[in-house]
Amino acid sequence: MSLFVPEFDDSVIVRDADAEVVGGDPVAVKLLADSSASGGALSTVRVTLAEGADGARPHLHHHSAEMFFLLDGEARLLSGDDVVGAERGDLVIVPPGRPHAFAAAPGSTADLLIVITPGVERFEYFRHLQRIRLGEAAPESLLEVQELYDNHFLSSPAWEARR
């Protein structure tokens, strides 16, 4: 087991009013702290999903674990081949290498705090997704940045069957 000790000098304080929001209805991503702010310890965002909205399609991270804390609402999360429900106050942590995805449960909204550790510079990834949503970049362009953001897409029959 190796121990990663992040290196940064000051506490990271992000005021809600100052945080950049990417997207909107049905998926809004509030950029809270990127890896560079925490000395590589973590990257964290807050994702707000409209009723039944998909948050992320199936993917995995080779080098980071991902934590999902449900602030409000109800969500469905893929973890490997299992689709689990989560409600307000529930926590799900997905280890590196495990396929995962998330969405608001049918008939519900979801508000999630998501933390990736160790951190990966992810803010530009979310801005890239926004450019795709706006038609400024092709969806296939995500395949070109999978290694950069350690975000590797895959298919999941278990996730598709949940619909």
What does this structure look like?
With 163 residues, the protein is mainly beta. 15% of the residues lie in helices and 40% in strands. Strands 1, 2, 3, 4, 5, 6, 7, 8, 9 and 10 form a 10-stranded antiparallel β-sheet that branches. The longest helix is centred in the last third of the chain and has 11 residues, at 123-133. The model has no long low-confidence stretch (mean pLDDT 94).
Summarize the structure.
With 163 residues, this protein is mainly beta. The chain has helices at residues 123-133, 141-144, 146-149, 157-161, and strands spanning 20-23, 27-33, 43-49, 54-60, 65-79, 82-87, 91-94, 100-104, 110-117, 152-153.
Largest sheet: 10 strands, antiparallel
Give average pLDDT, whole number: 94
The arrangement of helices and strands along the chain is: EEEEEEEEEHHHEH
Number of strands: 10
- Please give the radius of gyration in angstroms: 15 Å
Percent helix range: 10-25%
SS content category: mainly beta
Specify the overall morphology: globular
What share of residues are in beta strands? 35-45%
Query: How far is it from the N-terminal to the C-terminal residue, by CA?
Result: 39 Å
Ranges where pLDDT stays below 50 over 5 or more residues in a row are none
Count of helical regions: 4
Topology:
Layout: E1 20-23, E2 27-33, E3 43-49, E4 54-60, E5 65-79, E6 82-87, E7 91-94, E8 100-104, E9 110-117, H1 123-133, H2 141-144, H3 146-149, E10 152-153, H4 157-161
Antiparallel strand pairs: 1-2, 2-3, 3-9, 4-8, 4-10, 5-6, 5-7, 5-8, 5-9
